[in-house]
Design a protein that fits this description.
The complex is a heterodimer.
Chain A: H1 2-23, H2 27-55, H3 86-99, H4 101-104, E1 107-112, E2 115-120, H5 123-142, H6 152-161, H7 173-191, H8 193-197, H9 201-222, H10 228-239, H11 251-266, H12 274-277, H13 282-285, H14 308-321
Antiparallel strand pairs in A: 1-2
Chain B: H1 4-18, H2 20-24, H3 40-44, H4 54-75, E1 79-81, E2 87-89, H5 92-99, H6 107-114
Antiparallel strand pairs in B: 1-2
The complex binds protoporphyrin IX containing FE.
Residues 135, 138-139, 141-142, 145, 169, 172, 174-175, 178, 213-214, 217-218, 220-221, 228, 231, 235, 253, 256-257, 260, 263 of chain A line the site of protoporphyrin IX containing FE (HEM).
Amino acid sequence: MKIWSSLLAVIALVFIAWVGAGVLHLSTFFGIVLPYLALIIFLAGFLLRVIKWGKSPVPFCIPTTCGQQESLPWIKPNKIENPTTTWGVIWRMILEITLFRSLFRNTATEKHDGNLAIGSAKWLWFGSLLFHWSMLVIIIRHLRFFTEPVPVLIQGLEFMDSFLQIGIPLLYMTDVFIVLALSYLFLRRVAIPKVKYISQAADYFPLLLLLGVAISGILMRYFFRVDVVGVKELAMGLVTFRPVFSAEIGPIFYIHLTLVSCLFAYFPWSKLMHAGGIFMSPTRNLANNSRMVRHVNPWNYAVKTHTYDEYEEEFRDKMKKVGLPLEGEG
Amino acid sequence: MYNGGKIIAGLIIFAAIITSPFLLNIGKADEAPQPSLDTPAINQMSEKKCVESAEFMRTGHMQMLNDWRDQVVRNGDTVYVSNSGQEYEMSLENSCLKCHSNKQEFCDSCHTYAQVDPYCWDCHTDTKGAGQ
Ligand code: HEM
């Protein structure tokens, strides 16, 4: 049910874009209004959610670590697994978001001859790493539609991505990777009963939406060709706030663009916000310096204190009388 | 403990990255390519037609070239019959570039704009049609 409703939602989006742009020719709405709207929702929603998270206090110093903490000089600390400085945290964060190191430690528990056995499970790490990197490369490559002249960096990326020189238009390796990776991530949820049990529509829908974006893009590039020069003129118009339609662009482009717009508009309100959330996780973004720096809980109220010095001051005469030792006059 | 300063700095960087296509294009006007048809071969034509309709050529010429290549190199077939019944030699240099002998002002004007760099010219010459 959750799977079918998600699939149905994506198909409905495709259908709306196809009817709207292909049959009713509402290209102004699907080509200009919707993308702008989606970008505004994405940017505002993303900023608001991060600001909201930023407003909640972090009461304790709770980084998760798995290495020796910095302590006595002759004990070798593990600077990556247990950072004690901000630079250490930044380095660990860079490795986390580029290599998904914490996911690399993923384990699976299985029953072997009546005993529970825990083994490493790397496929999830591999699949998600493959997906995220492919998506990044594809998005950077897409900047060729939004820049004139196209930066050398993007040209180089495009060259490397297509260097197998298969077919015309040249096959991009990332196109194959993203479809394989997304299919794996989707099938994992469907095929493993335990994972299926905890999967919600909110898990299936983003996967299927991303798959829809990728497949529509691939169909457009290799099968139902559109006028790419016309697309670039529209894209350049959008980013210079002078959008124009200089050519008739096929409906597959509007399907692609509508799915992308929905992805962007959906992003801030969904689990995809882990993109911003990873930076806001106290278990990752704090230095493990609890032995060096006092971590003040911001919701502590001001406690009324009465220090020993003040106590001694108050009872000095009485203490003197009974002969108690006094620090102030030691 | 809050980290307002760091969070705001991060958000500013994020917003700059997301809006970079807009920021990079401030003050620029987009100039669409104008592929030039001004070549001796095309000027001589009474009816200025490409191999297929111009709309088809704009979106599908790369796939057509791919088909041509396979036809010629694998099947030894060298004649293409267009939708209108006209016959053309299936050749990059002796057909496309005979009419479009101004590669720089024609093919390249679009390709630079759309950032495609066909590797065909590693082997095929682009000056033959111009008679150089
Ligand atoms: C989340 C963002 C997006 C993703 C993941 C995505 C994905 C893809 C993929 C996988 C392809 C296949 C070819 C390739 O890899 O280059 C593609 C092609 C394409 N996409 Fe996107 N896309 C996105 C956003 C956009 C946007 C905003 C536009 C609007 C200009 C766009 C326009 C196109 C066009 C015109 C093609 C065909 C390119 C060609 O024929 O060479 N895409 N897209």
